[in-house]
Amino acid sequence: MISNAKMLGYKPNSAARNLRLNRTGAVGFHIQRNASLSSAYMMEFLRGAAEGAHAEDYDLVLLAAGASERLKTSPSVDGIIIADPFSTDPAARTLLDTGITVVSGEACPPGLETAATVRADHEGGLTQILDHLYSRGARSIGLLAAGDHSGWGIEVRRTYNHWAEQHDLTKVIVEIPPVDNRLAYSISAGHEMLRTHPTLDAIITTTVGSAKAIAEFASAAGRQVGADLLLAACLDTGDNESERTITALDVQPHELGRRCAATLISLIVGGSSVPATQLVSTNVRIRPSTLGS
After folding, report:
1. What is the pLDDT of residues 94-150, one digit of tens each?
2. CA 85, CA 262: separation in Å to the nearest integer?
3. Cα–Cα distance measured from residue 200 to residue 2, given in angstroms and rounded to the nearest whole number
4. What is the pLDDT of residues 123-133, one digit of tens each?
5. Which residue in 193, 176, 194 sits closest to 185, CA to CA?
6. Exposure check for the chain: N or C terminus, fewer CB within 10 A?
7. Does this entry carry the keyword Transmembrane (predicted)?
8. What's the rounded Cα separation, in Å, for the pair 277 and 107?
């Protein structure tokens, strides 16, 4: 029978199969309201998730973001990916309360719990950046990072604190709150950090975009970026050629998204054991902002 079906070019009817299994054949994708879907990072994450879902014959559905009230009905999906979960995101909490299987892309902050997590190795990557800055002579390094509302922000600050203590260096940290315009806040915080700590010889900020803006401000103030002030970013967005001058951490968002989808669908179909946490390797991109021209 199977050989005859193949010979006739028969393809399984996915709608009938999903009806028989009581599934929708779709997984949802949720990002926080103030995250930018148009950013290079999020677009790559989304592409990876779509690729991972398609490989398992699933559709990927973008869920409405920003809902502050409880859902009247659960989303018509078999599972949900939450990208970069924030504890301050009411929609994420609502989705977790539906009972639908959820996988997070990046670690969950305290108070949120998903069935599994796929996260980037921020600890290993940031340690490499800090070691690189130290080798370039930096001894006063400031950090701009997300606060306790962000799982990866917690990991970044913990890594920085541990490294600074190991090297007996003074810590200079500014936490970025979950405001609507985090880029503008990060840039302003970077400017203020330079004003209040003029002896800083290196700053690690959140994204390449904020690092580039801080570089322009520092240059106008007479600092030489790449020489007497080194700049790096925790997240390599690399949206355009001008931003590829900033040393940054490539967290492989495409691979994060792909593995989130694959992990979620494995949990849905229940065919294999799935680890509670998976780590995606990161790559440090060394560029002129820490090397000079």
Report:
1. 899 999 999 999 999 999 999 999 999 999 999 999 999 999 999 999 999 999 999
2. 18
3. 70
4. 999 999 999 99
5. 176
6. N
7. no
8. 9
